[in-house]
Design a protein that fits this description.
Blueprint: H1 2-10, E1 19-25, E2 29-31, E3 47-61, H2 86-98, E4 102-120, E5 123-137, H3 157-173, E6 179-187, H4 209-221, E7 231-238, E8 261-263, H5 273-276, H6 284-289, H7 299-306, E9 319-327, H8 343-352, H9 361-377, E10 383-385, H10 396-399, E11 410-412, E12 418-420, E13 429-430, E14 436-437
Parallel strand pairs: 5-6, 7-8
Antiparallel strand pairs: 1-3, 1-10, 2-3, 3-4, 4-5, 6-9, 7-9, 11-12, 13-14
Helix pairs in contact: 1-3, 2-9
């Protein structure tokens, strides 16, 4: 189950408080193929189905407002009834302020999962395409100061969430050598995605274009640190309008034996763009391909046009990432046994996200309650995670060397060499371990 992989990753995350994870999964539904690839006959037209997942991570706080010393980490929901009067809202906020235990949503992840069956040389091949649609934070998470704790082997909660999902995809979705996965990310900086009005929260850390692209590349690279003997990884990344020589300054990770990154895309430059580039909702590539006179544009020409488009040009930077996973295993993939909700229920939750408010802590608590109630009614069960204890670094004050009582100064040269000032003894020149030359006596 997906919850198991998320729990394993989040257990070693840098969270100051216990975490809760809600996973809502939509039923599979038939959809149009991702590619407008010409087929010689109706029998050879790829069959495609799609589902969406919404994953929310919350913390249970024990105070009305997180302590100022705690750091806030950067990177939907019952209907708000119209008859809710202003006086009722005031009463609601007052009750929140007096309650000591508050659940607040801190992270949200939306992914689209596709399964396409294609006939290749009279054999059916299963291609699983994953599009990480949105990742957002509310800005109300409570996390330790990075400078005060041991961070080795630990990930931020957001990065751990991504790693847990990647691990799930690799272990559960890859079966035989006839299966492969293409995972896509469109990294574009926006003040908010899933948590409405959270951009008004001054504690929310919003990354700029360059920071977000670097964050995603480093986060996707965490899949290479996972133990897997049977899968092969290839990574592609591209920032339209960014010169090749400039991309080195945006490369925050080093390649390793399991995953190396290629600057560019996993398509042939001369292929027609509409035949090989998948078209996802709310994606810059799809919007450009939908324009007129794009039928015969090649892949190379398409990415050249993308670099001067409204979304990727005019000083804006957007990153496109593709992870290709293939398998050499001979066993079948594990059967997915997650509980799915009806498409109507899922769309109601997704739609109501627009009507929530995460602008203040009190509004975040109220919106979290509404969303949690709606998920529970849809039979979504949360899992509770107690992160491993975070080791604290020694305080800087206790680690400082105390000055001598007499006030004399000591200059430390190394762990074994100390030069003391104010010495009046004759100088001794050391030539070696057994040779000492003394100055000749005078008089």
């Amino acid at each position: 189950m997906l919850e198991t992989f998320l729990s394993q990753a989040l257990k070693i995350s840098l969270s100051s408080l216990p975490l809760r994870v809600y996973v809502s999964t939509q039923e599979w539904e038939d959809t149009e193929p991702l590619y407008n690839e010409p087929s010689p006959s109706e029998d050879s037209v790829p069959k495609c189905k799609r589902r969406q997942r919404l994953i929310f991570v919350s913390q249970v706080t024990d105070c009305p407002d997180p302590k100022p010393s705690e750091k806030k980490e950067s990177t939907e929901v019952a209907t708000i009834e119209p008859q809710d009067t202003e006086s009722k809202l005031e009463q609601r906020d007052s009750s929140i302020s007096t309650n000591k235990n508050h659940e607040v949503y801190i992270l949200g992840l939306s992914v689209l999962e596709y399964e396409t069956i294609k006939k290749v040389e009279n054999e059916e091949k299963l291609i699983k395409t994953i599009y990480i649609d949105k990742l957002d934070s509310s800005g109300y998470g409570v996390f330790p100061e990075r400078k005060s704790v041991v961070t080795e082997g630990r990930l931020t909660v957001a990065r751990a969430l991504v790693q847990g999902y990647l691990n799930y995809c690799e272990k559960e979705y890859l079966g035989t050598s006839k299966e492969e996965i293409f995972l896509h990310v469109f990294a574009r900086a926006q003040p908010q995605y899933l948590f409405a009005e959270s951009a008004k929260n001054p504690k929310k850390q919003i990354l700029n274009d360059k920071e977000l692209i670097q964050w995603w590349k480093k986060s996707l690279h965490t899949i290479s640190t996972l133990d897997s003997e049977h899968s092969k990884l290839k990574g592609y990344w591209y920032v339209p309008g960014l010169e090749d020589i400039m991309q080195k300054s945006m490369n925050p990770v080093e390649d390793n034996n399991r995953l190396s990154w290629k600057w560019g895309w996993p398509y042939n430059d001369k292929d027609k763009a509409q035949h090989v580039i998948p078209q996802f909702p709310d994606d810059a590539k799809s919007r450009l391909l939908a324009k007129e006179d794009m039928e015969n544009i090649t892949v190379w020409e398409f990415f050249e046009l993308l670099s001067i488009s409204e979304e990727c040009g005019s000083g804006r930077r957007a990153g496109f990432f593709v992870l290709h996973l293939s398998s050499s295993k001979s066993n079948e993939a594990t059967q997915d046994t997650c509980e799915m909700m009806s498409n109507e229920q899922f769309r109601d939750i997704e739609e109501q996200l627009f009507y929530l408010d995460f602008s203040t802590y009190e509004e975040c608590v109220e919106s979290t309650t509404r969303l949690s109630d709606m998920l529970v009614k849809a039979r979504v069960k949360y899992i509770e995670i107690i992160p491993d204890e975070i080791e604290k670094l020694p305080s800087q004050e206790s680690s400082k060397r105390k000055a001598p009582i007499d006030g004399s100064e000591v200059n430390t040269l190394s762990s074994s060499l100390i030069r003391r000032k104010g010495k009046t003894e004759p100088t001794v020149n050391v030539l070696g371990g057994s040779l000492v030359r003394k100055k000749p006596k005078t008089g």
